[in-house]
Structure formats: C-alpha cells, structure tokens
C-alpha cells in the first residue's frame, strides 16, 4: 500500500503539533508547521483549531481540505511554497482572516474559489508565482485589501475592480505577459506605492520556478556584459608617461 504514490511525507502527531505552537509578536498563538516535509494535511491539527495563525508553508501539500473552515479564529494563513493546485470553497468562511499567502504553488484561475471574495477583512493577499491567466473581478469585493501580489503568473490584464480598490497601497504584478511595456508599468504599480520585494531561497522554489528565475538572472547578466565597445583603445598619455619627478625616482622605487 502506498507504493508508487510519490514521496511519503513526515507524519505530524498531535504532540508534535502542540510543541509547534508559538506566541506571535502581537500575542496570538501561531501553529508553525513550515518546512516539515508534510505531503498531506495533518488531520490532528483540527484539534488545535482555536489558534490565531497557521503556517504550513514550504511543504509538499497538494490539497487543503474543506475542514479548514474549523479554524474560525484564524487571522493569518501561510500556505506559500507548496504544490497546491486548488483551494477549498470553505476558505471563504474564515471571516477573521487578514493575511493570506498562497504564493509559489500551482494554482490556476479555474481552481481559485470564488468564495475568496467573502474574506471581507483581508488586508494582504499574495497570489504570486502561480499559474493564473486572469484575476476574478469578484476580488474587487475585498475592500479592506492593502497589498496584493500577482507577480510571476501569465496575466495579460488586471481588472479595474482590483486596481481601484479603495485602500490598495501595494500591487506587485511584475513578470506577467502584459500586452506592452507601458501597460505593464501601469499594472505593476497603479497605486504608485512602494514596490514590494518578495525573497525566497533557491531550495524553496519548485524546479520550474527555479529555472525561470535562473533564466531571468542569466538574461540580466548578459545585458550587463554587453557594453558598447569604443572605436579606439582609450589613450591616457599622462598616465602612461611618468613625469620628471617619477623618472628621477624610478630606480629608487624598483630597489624597494
């Protein structure tokens, strides 16, 4: 049983989960199960559903169950750098959520639940490094949203309902195939706010994302190395010809 089904992940017991609870900077209780090698959502953590924050980032999760709705107190949910292809509709029941990071997964527009627009208190949403070819206009219902990450997808446009959110301060939509450079600049930062930079370590990126980043880096390096070659070799006679004082002291310096 279980053969041929891929890598078997670490089994998280209730004891391990309890020992992974941390107190966050604002006094909330955070269940931190990041970088644990988890391949399936640990059902035992449903017994700890009263935590304020849940970090399951940098694992190998392919699915989040609908039972995530039991975490009704949740304000902060980090699922970045997994292998998620879709999210459950019940995520829309987490009405206290103000931070949701689902960056660096395999989410498609089709599998982005419409119920995301029910997260009325959401302030930060990161959808970067996924497979999104469009953004649902319904996300314009998230009136409290201050920051949204849409970078490294396959977007050709961003709906006005999202760009014109009343409290939006940062929108990062870099490296999307927008029709032309002027529009790309407009999409990248329509709020003229401070650009957000998201850093991840190479080991936390999937193979395709890592290759994409490395290719971009190689392109930049090539551009840096292509410098206009002067028609003549630079000639600095004053530097090549020693002045009288230097001539007089040449032998002395050689001996030293």
UniProtKB/TrEMBL annotation:
Renumbered residue ranges of the record's region Disordered: 224-256
Protein keywords: Leucine-rich repeat, Repeat
GO CC terms, sorted: cytoplasm
PROSITE patterns in the cross-refs: LRR
Pfam families in UniProt: LRR_14 (PF23598)
Entries under InterPro entries matching the protein: Leu-rich_rpt, Leu-rich_rpt_typical-subtyp, LRR_dom_sf, LRR_domain-containing, LRR_R13L4/SHOC2-like
Superkingdom to which the source organism belongs: Eukaryota
Record-given protein name: LRC18 protein
Organismal lineage: Eukaryota, Metazoa, Chordata, Craniata, Vertebrata
């Amino acid at each position: 049983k279980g053969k041929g089904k891929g890598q078997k992940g670490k089994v998280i017991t209730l004891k391990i989960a309890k020992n992974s609870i941390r107190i966050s900077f604002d006094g909330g209780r955070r269940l931190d199960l990041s970088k644990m090698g988890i391949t399936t959502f640990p059902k035992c953590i449903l017994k700890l559903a009263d935590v304020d924050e849940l970090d399951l980032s940098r694992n190998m999760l392919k699915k989040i169950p609908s039972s995530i709705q039991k975490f009704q107190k949740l304000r902060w949910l980090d699922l970045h750098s997994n292998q998620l292809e879709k999210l459950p509709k019940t995520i829309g029941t987490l009405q206290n959520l103000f931070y949701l990071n689902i960056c660096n997964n395999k989410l498609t527009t089709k599998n982005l639940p419409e119920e995301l627009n029910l997260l009325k208190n959401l302030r930060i949403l990161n959808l970067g490094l996924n497979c999104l070819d469009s953004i649902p206009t319904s996300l314009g219902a998230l009136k409290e949203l201050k920051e949204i990450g849409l970078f490294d997808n396959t977007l050709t446009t961003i709906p006005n309902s999202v760009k014109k959110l009343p409290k939006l301060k940062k929108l990062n939509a870099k490296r999307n195939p927008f029709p032309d450079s002027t529009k790309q600049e407009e999409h990248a930062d329509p709020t003229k706010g401070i650009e957000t930079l998201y850093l991840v370590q190479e080991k936390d990126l999937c193979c395709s994302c890592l290759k994409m980043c490395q290719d971009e880096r190689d392109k930049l390096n090539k551009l840096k190395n292509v410098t206009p070659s002067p028609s003549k070799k630079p000639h600095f006679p004053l530097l090549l010809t020693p002045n009288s004082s230097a001539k007089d002291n040449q032998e002395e310096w050689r001996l030293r």
